[in-house]
# Entry
Amino acid sequence: MIFCCFAGFARSGTSLVGSILNAHPKCAVSHELDVVTKLLDNGVSREQAFQMIINKVGEEAQKGKRWCPTVDGGKYHFDKLGLSQKKLDEVEVIGDKKAGKTLFTLCGAQISKDATVELDRLRNIVQVPIRVLICHRDPFSVFSALKMGGHPFGIKWCSFDRMMGHIDLLRKVLAPEELIEVWLEELTSKPQEELRRIFQRLGVVASDEFISSMASHVWSKPNRRSCLNESEVAEVKAAIEKYDFLKMRM
# Structure
């Protein structure tokens, strides 16, 4: 079994990827249970956390749908993504999608924690290999989507700059096999190829039929840059220059 958690900023595709993973019969990925925080800060045991995930996934299957935000701020539900009851002894991947909070739990609000120590604690508690799935998106598109959704640029900007520092740190301290990075632009432009790569990195066999079905739920969205004013564009550009992992992709 592998334990999978997520990291990333809003509107970067974490909910979409988490829901697609959970659609696989061998994966149980709950939506925003904040399991990493429960394990590291709240004293919840491995057995309790894993059962919480199974129960949450089962509740979603019973309802027949799983709501999550789209990358551009709307909402839709995954009632056609094979939601099903899962059994703990049958899943190969178990995890939770709570991207922003997981970053703060591992690194601290102002990078006040030693992420290496926190990751070691997580490995020791779950007692299985871990995978951290980091979802990225063109920052111009992120902030355009947020602004169109009515979020103040300044407040979200502070969170973004801090989170990029956290992500930069995690990319350096995770073992290569533990880090899975997904760029939303690649997922939307070649969904079958990207989904196949993600499942392969998780060690889960996914049939061509399953991959094709899941790819049909990935909406191809153009980059949205037009609603940012000149000063906002300048701030985004400055952030990109601070982090090599962003700069190399722009």
Summary: The chain has one domain: 2-247. Confidence is low (pLDDT under 50) at residues 69-74. The first helix runs from residue 14 to 23. Strands lie at 2-8, 27-31, 67-69, 75-77, 93-97, 130-136, 179-183.
